[in-house]
Amino acid sequence: MSEENKNVKKEEENKGDNIQISDDVVAVISGMAATEVQGVAEMAGGFAGGISEVLSGKKNMAKGIKVEINGNDVKIDVNIIVEYGARIPDVAYEIQKRVKKSVENMTGLNATEVNVHIQGVQTAQEKKSKKKEDKKEEKPEENKVEEKNVVNKIVNKVKPKDNSEVKKPAKKTTKKSKVTKK
Questions:
Q1: What is the structure's pLDDT at 45?
Q2: Alpha carbons 36 and 39: distance in angstroms, whole number
Q3: Interatomic CA distance for residues 97 and 89, integer angstroms
Q4: Which CATH architecture does the domain made up of 21-127 adopt?
Q5: Which one of 16, 87, 116, 155 is CB 3.0 to 4.6 Å from 92, fit for a cystine?
Q6: Confidence grade of residue 4 (pLDDT, cut at 50, 70, 90)
Q7: Residue 103: which of 180, 29, 4, 181 has the closest Cα?
């Protein structure tokens, strides 16, 4: 198997059929389960994860998740940023419980380890500034539509009703006199 395309082959006891589950699938399942836990501000991904979100415009649900599959066993590392004021041991335990349950129920794999790594704490002030940034990112699309509507209204008002071309006024040229000092 190539390292880029890590897949799990699970043999069915009776049939001998193969089922392949990608690491990315397990990572997305884990990410979804982790973000549902109260006290998790966001997933902590690396630089590459942030860039891919910006370029694609989609939220990367596997951000901050590392998966290692060995046979029928899976080891999952979850990197998060917690909300300020949350009790970290409780948040971590709940993440472990939900991720393990979700992965085992959806994939049939045995989650042997779910390690939670706290990468930071998000304060209320950081949360507010992040919301403002998110709103600014959403507004350009809305503003483009509004600007287009405004431009169309202006063009329609300026356009002659008979669709004839508007003649440009002739340029006025004025000669400036030279003033000489003695």
A1: 79
A2: 9
A3: 12
A4: 2-Layer Sandwich (3.30)
A5: 116
A6: very low
A7: 29
Chain length of the chain:
182
The two structure tokens encoding residue 79 = 């990197």
Dump pLDDT digits (tens) for 11-41: 444 456 788 899 999 999 999 999 999 999 9
* Neighbour tally for 114: CB within 10 Å: 22
CA angle 132–84–33, rounded 5-degree value: 85
Domain ranges of the chain: 21-127
Extract long-range pairs of 42-45: CB within 8 Å, 24+ residues apart: 42/80, 42/81, 42/122, 43/78, 43/79, 43/80, 43/81, 44/79, 44/80, 44/81, 44/117, 44/119, 44/120, 45/79
Residue 3 CB partners (closer than 8 Å, separation 6+) = none
Angle at 45 between CA 43 and CA 49, to 5 degrees: 120
Residue 53: pLDDT over 90 = no
Closest CA to 75 of 40, 103, 106: 103
Burial letters for 129-155: b for 16+ Cβ neighbours within 10 Å, e otherwise? eeeeeeeeeeeeeeeeeeeeeeeeeee
Contact criterion met (CB below 8 Å) for 32 and 59: no
